[in-house]
Fold:
Amino acid sequence: MAKKSVASLQTGSKRLTKAIKMVKSPKTGSYMFMESIMPPEMVNDWMNKK
Structure:
């Protein structure tokens, strides 16, 4: 189960995206959220990576 949330951010001339995904912890089985700010081109690679 994965949740995808993406918001576009602009700072000066750079265009950045904040991506949030929900990841299941292998130790406890609970879900946690991982956040990252990156260029929009890298979002799909980051979301598909485990």
